[in-house]
Specification:
By secondary structure, this protein is an alpha+beta fold. Helix content is 21%, strand content 37%. The protein has one domain. It is elongated, with a radius of gyration of 17 Å.
Length: 141
């Protein structure tokens, strides 16, 4: 199942819809997320994210849950939205003993991206004002 987000700005007329998720929906999506999960696991084991994460992956591999589903992000510099593959690791997910989310870079300006939550108002990527509203939130198969 996936999620759709539609943002609209009454100030400048910007309107755009984004689709995230969909793991059970298509084989292609399932394959891409599995490949991303394996890539994240391997990078962590080889020390790309530091010695602490490497040791944790090495010693607690079976207890770590990796999420690489797609999520909606917004750049805090140029305000552009983008759908990216999340890079998250959890250990004891229900108790949140450990939760790590690796940073993403904006494809437009290379600044840091912030994952969008279900907040209703955000910065408009067109006029840059704090006027873009989440006008539709839905689920799809």
């Amino acid at each position: 199942m996936g999620t759709s987000y539609k943002y609209k700005c009454d100030e400048c007329g910007y309107e755009e819809e984004f689709f995230t998720g969909g793991r059970p929906m298509t084989k292609d999506y399932h394959k891409r997320t599995e490949e991303a999960e394996e890539e994240l696991r391997s990078a962590a084991l080889y020390g790309k994210y530091g010695e602490s994460i490497r040791q944790l992956m090495k010693n607690e591999r079976e207890k770590i849950y990796i999420n690489c589903d797609t999520e909606l992000y917004q750049c805090m510099e140029c305000r552009q939205f983008s759908v990216q593959i999340a890079k998250e690791m959890y250990m004891n997910r229900q108790d949140f003993t450990m939760s790590v989310e690796f940073r993403h870079e904006c494809p437009s300006c290379h600044s840091a991206l912030l994952r969008k939550t279900r907040g209703s108002i955000t910065f408009c990527p067109k006029c840059k004002m704090f006027t873009a509203q989440l006008v539709s939130l839905g689920k799809f198969d």
